[in-house]
Each structure stands twice: as structure tokens, then as C-alpha cells.
């Protein structure tokens, strides 16, 4: 009898422990989800306010020409070699894949149209933005994050110097200017790479390729892609600078801010690219 009572008591205790464990797990999950949502909303709000303040201080851009020119060199000129490599290989792969797929049907000449339109509308702006998000956005977050943890930002505020006006605005303006220029450069390089593959492996002459490409391209294909790059530039600069200015925790915090800047920039670029593509096609095509 005693053994039966002890057995029933043990089973009851086990069931109670399982229920309590499940309740604690659920509470932990809900707490973590709520914390993530609140932090994401706070980060987004900080970034939007900082962007508005930076756009307000654009009026002071003529007085900051040296800083803007320096950031343009960092964002643009120093990014040209990697943009060259990525652009030419993207164009080559695009031409090779489409050419080999269309050749059995005898319509491989369409690779000029596909390469030209794809590079100007989507691939050129998107790949250039991804390159600069990894190279420039991370650099912005690391630089400003280092200044934040070393209390240089606090020193500027004590001296009544606005960090957004001094540090964020030149980077924002430089990126908005240089990203469209780099995109045009990537478009040209990508189309040249596609023409090389078209002549060497698909059997389409350079003259025919560029003739078909020019006939298929329209002006709206170019300026819709450039409009996207301006938005991508806003995203990269805003995310990189906001993550840098909110850095805490020393050198480890700088690394975390840099990682968040790259990941968040890439996510926002992809999401905004889909939204803009949907809107542009409804309005213009």
C-alpha cells in the first residue's frame, strides 16, 4: 500500500514539474519575443530620427565639401576594384546560364536583351548595394562605434558639436552620390562581360550583341535602377551610422554593431528592392 502511494506521489510530482517547466519555457519565449520587438522598434525609431536630422543638415553640405569628398573617395573610388570583379563575373554568369538554356531552342540571341535589361534594372543596382553594404556600411559602423566607446562622440556633444551634422551627413551625401555612379559602372562592366561570353561560348558577335542590347534597353530601365540605388544609399548610411552611434560594450560591442549593420542593411535592401520593383512595374511598365 505504501509503495503504491509513493509511486502515485512520484508520478504527481513529475507531472507538476513538467507543467511548471513548460510554463517557464513559454514565459521565457514570450519574454524574449517581446524584448526583441521592443528593441527592434527602438532601433528603427532611432534610425528614422537620425536620418531626418541628417537630411535637415544637408543644407550645411557646401561647408563640408572636404569631408564629403573624402567620404566619396572612400565609398566610390576605393570600391571600384571589387565592383569591377563582381560586375564582370555577374554579367558572364548571367550570359552563360541564359545562353546555354536558350541555345537548344535557337533563341540564344536573346541573351543581349536579358543581360542588358537585367543588369540595368536589377542586378547592377542590387549587387552594387550589397558590395557597399558589406564594405562601406560595416566601415561606418566600426568607425563611429569606435568613436562612441572611446567617448569621442560624448566629447563632441560636450563641445556643442552635433555628431549627426559632423559625422553622419557627409557619409550620407557621399553614399547617395557615389552609389548611382558605381551602379552605372557595374552595369557597363556586366554588359561587357556578358558580351565576352556571348562571343566566346554562345556564338554571338560583339556587334550583334551590343546592337540587340541597345535596341532592347529603354531610358526608364536606367533611371528606375538609379532611383533604387539612391534608396539603397539611404539605407546603408542610415543603418551603418545608427548602429555605430548606439554602440556599447567596448571592442566587443563594436564587432556586434558592425555585424548588425551588415545584416540589417542586406535585409532592408532586399525587402525595399522587392517593394520598389512591384511599385515601379505597376506605374511604368
Describe the overall structure:
By secondary structure, this protein is mainly α. Helix content is 87%, strand content 0%. The chain contains 9 helices and no strands. It is elongated and about 70 Å long. It starts with a helix and ends with a helix.
Strand residues, percent: under 5%
Query: The biggest beta sheet, please?
Result: none
Number of domains: 1
Mean pLDDT, to the nearest integer, reads 85
Q: Could you give the order of the helices and strands? A: HHHHHHHHH
Helix content: over 70%
Instruction: Identify the overall geometry.
Output: elongated
User: What gyration radius follows from the Cα positions, in whole Å?
Assistant: 26 Å
**Secondary-structure-derived class:** mainly alpha
- The strand count comes to 0
Task: Based on the model shown, name its key terms.
single chain, 285 residues, mainly alpha, elongated
Mind sketching the topology for me?
Layout: H1 2-56, H2 65-75, H3 80-102, H4 111-149, H5 152-158, H6 163-202, H7 206-216, H8 219-245, H9 250-284
Helix pairs in contact: 1-6, 1-8, 2-6, 3-4, 3-6, 4-6, 4-7, 4-8, 4-9, 6-8, 8-9
